[in-house]
Automatic annotation (TrEMBL), chain A:
SUPFAM superfamilies: P-loop containing nucleoside triphosphate hydrolases. It comes from Cyclopterus lumpus. GO terms for cellular component: cytoskeleton. The gene is LOC117734584. Residues 42-314 form the Septin-type G domain. This is Septin 9a.
TrEMBL record, chain B:
PANTHER family: SEPTIN. One of its GO terms (cellular component) is spindle. The keyword Amino-acid biosynthesis does not apply. PROSITE patterns: G_SEPTIN (PS51719). Residues 366-421 have a biased composition (Basic and acidic residues). Its main location: nucleus. This is Septin. It comes from the Eukaryota. Belongs to the TRAFAC class TrmE-Era-EngA-EngB-Septin-like GTPase superfamily. Septin GTPase family. Residues 37-306 form the Septin-type G domain. It holds the Pfam family Septin. The gene is SEPTIN7. It is found in: Chromosome, Centromere, Kinetochore; Cleavage furrow; Cytoplasm, Cytoskeleton, Cilium axoneme; Cytoplasm, Cytoskeleton, Spindle.
């Protein structure tokens, strides 16, 4: 009897007062239906970045999350997987549709991260990319003739893959997450979690949470952005489970008469969507079913705003000295310099 | 049986014995002696932290080398690569084995891993040098052998082939120690992924011309079959575990997952049994021999020739590891001899030069002495003459004095005579 309304997409909506008595019903809640129709027409955009060493199953996980071949490897047929000498940033866009809702999904891959012998500053290209996306959006925004709908290429969410050593975070992981948690929402996951037994997994997670806390790294969902008590409760539950131990697979096997996504080994079959086996289902729910809009909101209202404030302050001081009057239009060189300064923490 | 000709030109004909002599007992004597003496084996494990090295060591030797009280190096965070060794004495069936495990915590763990292999190379060279010194001593009775005989290199199961760090490390160490590459945490991969990964690794190893430990060829059919089976499954994909789990009433060592139990000792699940058999039951002695005859000899000839090589050995004519060690050694000996000759010549030259110098010096000092002697002679003569002069003077003076005295005497006499005369006169 519960109609599919915007409530499923936007969690923080107060319900209408009771089953409406006709004479006191104004019809304000009909706005939800209007919003829904509009959103369906416009479609959604989601930009996810995957970061991690090669061989941790990033592409497979992306394919599993969106149940289609969206990863870079599926699109570009590479004969031999060579580790690139420097970090490259490759972004692939797909238009996917489900029940009339269209989504433009962009997966941003970072091959070469953490694979070299010397990994100093391997986070720089990634930070530069994220800031460049913010910059592009800013430029569109401060244009005099703005487009009706600014194409949103900002990175909404960065999934960081932690190798399943079972002991603790590596210095590279800590460095990267520390720097990037300030500019983008980071969701850490334990990759290839079928390596760990349940006790090892719990121990590892505890260790990781301790280290994140000790280093002051705030991953999504961030504590400081909890809006009210209800939010906090939900997010606390999620925070107790991070990082999610995931297993990815795009092959189907027959288990108990059903066809399921999984991995078949000699000692058993791992079911990807089985909560007892791995926490992929929780990750998917977080990213897509419950918190997708929240992630986008935090990106645009907090991370982007921080960047914008910083840039415009720099801008004002620079240009005020030069011209004596506030101007918004900048040369491309200055743009690059400022974005570099912004990315230098 | 064909008669064979040896170097001395003596025809050796393996003779059939007509009775029981008893030297077939020699292996037993060696056996008994070895058992009494005990065996030593040094094993090095290298790999990033969290790959299950400590667990594998515990599983291999069924001892708790690393236990909760003395945790393995992975549990401690290291900032730089250190090399640690732990010794354990294991006994089985009356045979005792002094096992030294060399661990390398911190390898590949930092952000910048350039030269993280340097401490390991230094350690191995150090051990070779120690053995070389012990060999060259006068009293060689107790020679502890702490050279690294085998290095297990753990490869991360990424599924994508060798990492740059793996390649660099193996390229630098394949000339110094027997490297056996292993795929760690093999329960990460399905059998198909595992096959693919193994092929990629072997291809990478061949591409970069890395010489991992080769199993020796034998004449025995059975052994050849076993060796071939091992070769097909290189690099070995292992799982380690020391926890015992019940499966269908049987107690096995394995890892318990919600979807099943991975049995460590099951040949279909992983290659752990193959590794254990190869390392301990069949090829331990061969590993020690190859270390002694090939790696150690390389080090030794390099050291004694006293020619500086840089990190990469440019004497590639060493050829295969176990193809013909004798021919290799002959060549090295010839090199060595020629180098010695050169050194001898140099030394002779230096010697001649020194002799010439010495002679020159002697001649100089002789001339000097000659001169001084002349000088002193002259002085002496001068003094002589002076003295002669003085004596003549003295003589002259004496004469004069005497003459004077005589005159005085004469005068006195005259005076006394006149006095007498006067006296006489006076008296009248």
């Amino acid at each position: 009897m519960h109609k599919k309304t915007m409530e499923d997409y936007v969690p923080n909506v107060s319900k209408a007062s009771g089953p409406g008595v006709d004479f006191s019903y104004v019809g304000i809640d009909a706005i939800l239906e209007q919003m829904r129709r509009k959103a369906m027409k416009q479609g959604f955009e989601l930009n996810i970045m995957v970061v991690g060493q090669s061989g941790l199953g990033k592409s497979t996980l992306m394919n599993t999350l969106f149940k289609s071949k969206v990863s870079r490897k599926s699109v570009q047929a590479t004969a031999q997987e060579k580790i690139p000498k420097t970090i490259e940033i490759k972004s692939i866009s797909h238009d996917i549709e489900e029940k009339g809702v269209r989504m433009k999904l962009t997966v941003i891959d970072t091959p070469g991260f953490g694979d070299q012998i010397n990994n100093e500053n391997c986070w720089r290209p990634i930070m530069k990319f994220i800031n460049d996306q913010y910059e592009a959006y800013l430029q569109e925004e401060i244009n005099i003739n703005r487009k009706k709908r600014i194409p949103d290429s900002r990175v909404h969410c960065c999934i960081y893959f932690i190798p399943p050593t079972g002991h603790c975070l590596r210095p590279l992981d800590v460095e990267f997450m520390r720097r990037l948690s300030k500019v983008v929402n980071i969701v850490p996951v334990i990759a290839k979690a079928d390596t760990l037994t349940l006790e090892e997994r719990d121990f590892f997670k505890k260790k990781i949470r301790e280290e994140l806390r000790a280093n002051g790294i705030d991953v999504y969902p961030q504590k400081e952005f909890d809006e009210d008590a209800e939010d906090r409760m939900i997010n606390e539950k999620i925070r107790e489970m991070i990082p999610f131990a995931v297993v990815g697979s795009d092959q189907e096997y027959q288990v108990n008469g059903r066809r399921l996504l999984g991995r078949k080994t000699k000692w058993g079959t791992i079911e990807v969507e089985n909560i007892a086996h791995c926490e992929f289902a929780y990750l998917r729910d977080l990213l897509i079913r419950t918190h997708m809009q929240n992630i986008k909101d935090i990106t645009s209202s907090i991370h982007y705003e921080m960047y914008r404030v910083r840039r415009l302050n720099e801008n004002n001081t620079v240009v005020a000295h030069a011209n004596g009057m506030p101007e918004h239009h900048l040369e491309s060189e200055e743009k690059f310099d400022s974005s570099c300064a912004a990315s230098r923490f | 049986m064909e008669p064979t000709e040896t170097d001395g030109g003596i025809m050796e004909q393996p003779k059939n014995l007509e009775g029981y002599v008893g030297f077939a007992n020699l292996p037993n004597q060696i056996y008994r002696k070895s058992v009494k003496r005990g065996f030593e084996f040094t094993l090095m494990v290298v790999g990033e932290s969290g790959l299950g090295k400590s667990t594998l060591i515990n599983s291999l030797f069924l001892t708790d080398l690393y236990s909760p009280e003395y945790p393995g190096p992975s549990h401690r965070v290291e900032k730089t690569v250190t090399v640690e060794q732990s010794k354990v004495l294991v006994k089985e069936g009356g045979v005792q084995l002094l096992l030294t495990i060399v661990d390398t915590p911190g390898f590949g763990d930092t952000i910048d891993n350039s030269n993280c292999w340097q401490p390991i190379i230094d350690y191995i060279d150090n051990k070779f040098e120690g053995y070389l010194n012990a060999e060259s001593r006068v009293n060689r009775r107790l020679m502890p052998d702490s050279r690294v005989q085998c290095c297990l290199y753990f490869i991360t199961p990424s599924g994508h082939g060798l990492k740059p760090l793996d390649v660099e490390f193996m390229k630098r160490l394949h000339e110094k120690v027997n490297i056996i590459p292993l795929i760690a945490k093999a329960d990460t991969m399905t059998p198909e992924e595992c096959q693919l990964f193994k092929k990629q690794i072997m291809r990478g190893i061949q591409e970069h011309k890395i010489r991992i430990y080769q199993f020796p060829e034998t004449d025995d059919e059975e052994e050849m079959k076993m060796v071939k089976r091992i070769k097909d499954r290189l690099p070995l994909a292992v799982i380690g575990s020391n926890t015992i789990i019940e499966v269908n009433g049987k107690r096995v060592r394995g890892r318990q997952y919600p979807w099943g139990v991975a049995d460590v000792e099951n040949g279909e699940h992983c290659d752990f049994t193959i590794l254990r058999n190869m390392l301990i039951r069949t090829h331990m002695q061969d590993l020690k021999d190859v270390t002694n005859n090939v790696h150690y000899e390389n080090y030794r000839s390099r050291k004694l020739a006293a020619v500086t090589y840089n990190g990469v050995d440019n004497n590639k004519s060493k050829g295969q590891l176990t193809k013909s060690p004798l021919a290799q050694m002959e060549e090295e000996r010839r090199d060595h001899v020629s180098k010695m000759k050169k050194m001898e010549q140099e030394m002779e030259q230096v010697f001649e030069m020194k002799v010439k110098e010495k002679l020159q010096k002697l001649r100089d000092s002789e001339a000097e002495l000659q001169r001084r002697q002349e000088q002193m002679k002259k002085n002496l003569e001068a003094q002589h003459r002076e003295l002669e002069d003085r004596r003549r003077q003295h003589e002259e003076e004496k004469e004069r004095w005497e003459a004077q005295q005589r005159i005085l005497d004469q005068q006195k006499l005259d005076n006394s005579r006149t006095l007498e005369k006067n006296k006489k006169k006076k008296i009248f």
